Amino acid sequence: MLAAFEHMFPATIHPMVVHFTIAITYLATLAGLIGLLRRKSDFWPRSFLYLLGLGILATIAAGVAGVISESYIRQISPTVAPMFHRHKEYGVLTGVALIFAFVTQWLLGLRKQRVAMIGFIASLVATVLVSLAGHLGGTLVYHDAFGVG
Questions:
Q1: Taking Cα atoms as reference points, which of 23, 20, 28 lies closest to residue 102?
Q2: Strand, coil or helix: 145
Q3: Residue 14: CB partners within 8 Å, gap ≥ 6?
Q4: Membrane-spanning regions, if any (predicted)?
Q5: Could you give the CA distance from residue 4 to residue 60 in angstroms, rounded to a whole number?
């Protein structure tokens, strides 16, 4: 039953969805940086928190879309498999870093109407991780033609 549901979506659903995670993660980190620089405004700490929440949702959607796209792949060659697994690990770690940043901002930053430094650092980590995942995903598609055709 799940297989029938998975194939209701195109094989390219992951690349169509994952760009939201990338963009929102970068925007959240930018909002956090501005919030650290402009401490008198309560707009940026709240924006940081909301964008982190959206980033978590987008990461979950990208992960689900990745599972769906992966279901279309018949065989993973031994040369591509390590890169593919690292790509998935970086995606999961991106989500973990975003959750940590969100919880930290919720607990430490929101009460004081400021960006929590530890939350900002976690968002920076998430930005690096999503960039690494994106680089590996792009390499898999454009260099190795993984998942194409």
A1: 28
A2: coil
A3: 62, 65, 66, 68, 69, 70
A4: 16-36, 48-69, 89-108, 115-136
A5: 21
| Contact present, 116 and 100 (Cβ < 8 Å) | no
- 132 assigned to some structural domain: yes
Q: Measured between alpha carbons, how far is 48 from 55 in angstroms, rounded to an integer?
A: 10
pTM of model > 0.85: yes
11: its two tokens: 């094989």
Q: Is residue 47 part of a domain?
A: yes
Within a domain: residue 147?
no
* Count of Cβ atoms closer than 10 Å to residue 99 Cβ: 17
CATH of the domain at 112: 1.20.120
Residues 6+ apart with CB under 8 A from 120: 29, 32, 33, 35, 36, 48, 101
- Any domain includes 21: yes
pLDDT tens across the length of the chain (149 residues) = 556 665 788 878 898 999 999 999 999 999 999 999 998 888 999 999 999 999 999 999 999 999 988 888 888 888 889 999 999 999 999 999 999 999 999 999 877 789 999 999 999 999 999 999 999 999 988 887 676 66
